[in-house]
Amino acid sequence: MLAFVLYLTYSARKSHSGYNLLIGKMDVFSTIADIRRQRWAEPLVTWGFVPTMGFLHEGHLSLVRRARQENDRVGVSIFVNPTQFNDPNDLAIYPRDMDRDLSLLKEEGVDLVWTPRQDIVYPSDYETFIEVEKVTQRLEGAARPGFFRGVTTVVAKLFNVFQPQRTYFGQKDAQQAIVIKRMVQDLNFDIEVIVCPTVREADGLAMSSRNANLPPAARQEATCLYHALLAAKNLFEKNERDAEKLRATMVEVIESTDMARLDYVSVAHLDTLEELTVIEDRALLSLAVFFDTVRLIDNMGVGP
Ligand code: AMP
C-alpha cells in the first residue's frame, strides 16, 4: 500500500498535468481553474504571492518566508516566461528543476503552486500585452528590448490568476520592482508590493538561477559585480558625489578581470532611474556583466 501511494505521488509530481497534485499539504496545479478554485476556497484568508521562474535558491526562498510570515496562505508560480526573453538561446539554456523546486517550496510551508504549461499562459490566439512606458526605457529595458513588456504582461496575468493581497519581489532585480510597482499603481491592482533585500553567496555574488550556468572559472570572477558596487559605494561614503567617478570605478573593477565583459554601469535616481551627474542624496548603483553567454546583474543603493 505504501509503495502504491509513493508511486502515485511520484507519478503525479512527474506529470504536472493539471490535476491536484497533492504533495503533503501543498497543492500543485497547472490549470487556471484549479488555482482559482483553491484561491477562493476560503474567501476570508489573506494570500501572499511570489512569482518565480524556478530553479529556486535562497533568494527566492527569502521571499517565500516573508510571505509565509505575513499571510495566512502562500502561493508561488513557477513559469519560465518566454515573452521576456529576447534571445531564444537564453531561454533554451535557462536552468530548470521542477522536482527540486517543489520539494523546497513544500519545506517552506507553501500552500499553492502554479506550474502552467506555456500554452495555458499564452494560447495560440494570444494578443494582449502590458507596457509601462517610461521607467522601462533605461538599464535592463534599454539592454534587453521587449524584456519588461514580457515581465509586466506575465505578472499582470499572474496577479489576475492568484488575486493576492500581497506580492513579494527581490531588490536583486531593482528595476523590475520599480516597474511592477508602477504597473500596480497605474492599473489599480489592489495588491501591496513588498520588495525584499538581495540574498548573496558567502563571497558576495548575488544569488541567481543563472549562476548555475557559469563555468567554474567564471564563477570565481563573478564576484567582480559585488566588488565593483562596493568600490563605488566606498567612494560615495568618502563623500564623492560625482556620479561619473563612481561609474569609472565600477568599470575599472570589471575591466580588471579576465572573463567579464561589461554591458552597462549606472548611477541613477532611485525612482526614475535617470542617470545622475551629481548625487544629491541617494542613488542606485547598478551594472550588467556578461561571462560568455551568461549575463549577470546586480545593484546597491547608496545614501540614506
Ligand atoms: P526569478 O525566478 O529570477 O524571476 O526571480 C523571482 C523573484 O526572486 C524576483 O522577484 C527576483 O527579484 C527574486 N530574486 C532573485 N534572486 C534574488 C536574490 N538573490 N535575492 C532576493 N531576491 C531574489
Walk me through this protein's architecture:
This protein is α/β, with parallel strands linked by helices and 304 residues long. It has helices at residues 2-15, 32-39, 58-70, 88-92, 98-107, 118-121, 139-143, 147-162, 174-186, 216-221, 224-237, 243-255; strands at residues 21-23, 26-29, 47-52, 73-78, 112-114, 166-170, 192-196, 260-268, 283-291, 294-302. Helix 3 links the parallel strand 3 (47-52) and strand 4 (73-78). Helix 8 crosses helix 9 (174-186) and helix 11 packs antiparallel against helix 12 (243-255). The chain is globular, with a radius of gyration of 20 Å. The structure holds adenosine monophosphate. Residues 52-53, 59-60, 62-63, 169-170, 172-173, 196, 198-199, 206-209 line the site of adenosine monophosphate (AMP). Adenosine monophosphate (AMP) binds at residues 52-53, 59-60, 62-63, 169-170, 172-173, 196, 198-199, 206-209.
Short description:
Helices cover 40% and strands 19% of the residues.
Query: What summary fits the major beta sheet?
Result: 7 strands, mixed
Q: What structural class should be given to the helix and strand makeup? A: alpha/beta
Give the total of beta strands. 10
Q: Strand order across the biggest sheet?
A: 1-2-5-4-3-6-7
Overall mean pLDDT = 93
Number of DSSP helical runs: 12
The fraction of residues assigned to DSSP E strands is: 15-25%
Element order: H for helix, E for strand: HEEHEHEHHEHHHEHEHHHEEE
Poorly predicted regions are 1-24
Shape designation = globular
Heteromolecules bound:
adenosine monophosphate
Q: In whole angstroms, how far apart are the ends?
A: 61 Å
The helicity comes to 25-40%
Whole-angstrom Rg: 20 Å
